[in-house]
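Lab notebook: predicted structure, single chain.

Context: the supervisor wants predicted structures on file for every construct in the current expression panel, including those that have not yet been purified. This is the next one on the list. No modifications to the sequence; it matches the entry in the shared construct table.
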Amino acid sequence: MDFATLIGLVGAILLIASAIILGVSPDVFLNGPSLLIVVGGTLLVALAKFSIRQFFGAFKVAARAFKFKLPDTQESIEELVDIANIARKEGVLGLEGRDVKSPFLAQGIQMLVDGQDGATIKELLDKERLMTLDHNRTASKVFMAMADVGPAMGMIGTLIGLVQMLSNMEDPKSIGPAMAVALLTTLYGAVIATMIATPIADKLSLRMTEEARLQMLYTDALVAIQQGTNPRIIEQMLSSYLPPKEREKNGAAEPANG
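Prediction complete. Output recorded below exactly as produced.
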């Protein structure tokens, strides 16, 4: 579970909810027509920008991104070095049936066992990586579209409310409540964009970059294993994926500058 996202989203919602509860009656902030315009309008307009498969697929990608945390880079390197040692001692057939958490890595190991050459392994895994990038990028675009549309639908709802309010100016007492209802749509739009859609879109974009980097790590290691590279050399090669501080901690040589 990605606790940073969970804590951030839930914490922000609880913060706003607490401010509402400590003020006037929470019922003031609930309005059916306003929710219908903003939430329903945002979803439908976003749907109009994408295919049905892309739209609903974005929610599946988001759920997977938040439910499953990517493996740590250092742990992945250690796992790959262990795989390289087994392949060096027992041959690639010794990797058959090895249990790994990453489906991408499992697919690459199966290619090794099947006797694919390094160029084929790299080509197929690169295609798989690009497809994963495309799925994550599309999901991020869906939520970013919601972030763009949400405030606009809120403004549309506000304008509708103002027109309805101004058309009934005979009763001065109704102006205040009607104005409050009109402004609720702007609030709903801002909440959807700022507290929900934008954070999810940014998280998916970050996850896309991290997952692509991890898949490149797997690809480099698997190709090197297929070529019979020494596991120690593979470990040094993969250390370039680590942050500089972790590289220094592990005693890995820093890449030469310029």
